[in-house]
Amino acid sequence: MLTLGCHLSASKGFLHMGKEAVSIGANTFQFFTRNPRGFKSKELDVGDCDAFVEYWKSVGGGKIVAHAPYTLNACSADEKTRELAFMIMSDDLARLEYVPGNYYNFHPGSHVKQGVEIGTDYIVDLLNRIMKPEQKTTVLLETMAGKGSEIGRTFEELKAIIDRVECKEKIGVCMDTCHIFDGGYDIVNDLDKVFEEFDNIIGLDRLCAVHLNDSKNPIGSHKDRHECIGKGNIGLDALARFINHSAVRGLPVVLETPNELEGYKQEIDLLKGLYEGE
Q: I need a surface site. Which of 58, 95, 143, 158 has the fewest CB within 10 A?
């Protein structure tokens, strides 16, 4: 079964997002935990959370993905920025306990001339302060395109974080097709090799979710500019092979393409038609 959805606005709450997802043929979705370019969040509505959990179970929905704001930088050179990241992520994970068993995805951050090793130290320290064995949410590191001083362009950089996280049963990876393509991984001509490399370095058991996007730029560009499915440099054929690969089967696949709701519906219909499973 293909678990496929898109990014939705959380402004009207969980239940609204669930019903909106179902209305466009989706059985998963992603949302920002708070303002993606800031830090403000709405007051948590526990009743809405409970209603969503019941509804989502009734429609057979898959695991959903919460996304931390883009402005969060867990490895900033500025201590106040790192502490802000700590407070935001701690609060987000506490809120997600009301919709248990799902994923929390974040960009590892930018080391800003400190170097990857120091940046990695900061990320590991933050995660080990935040994550608890009893939490119901799995935290996902997102693969990055490598623009600027981003950490997470290579599988080795993600492994260096995962290896030092204490709550290993609660840490995973979200693979973004645009990001890894822009980062230099050839998912168009050598998809099997990319997944084999991921398995050898990190382990496919750590791959928990996918952001499915085409790319406006060529491979290795390190630009991170998403394109609609089939309209970029990755192309429809390669993305169809991607969703049909055994490594992706059963994972929540989230579209982050430059679309409104109707455009997402069209892409979901298109990808369902290209899916070779049940």
A: 58
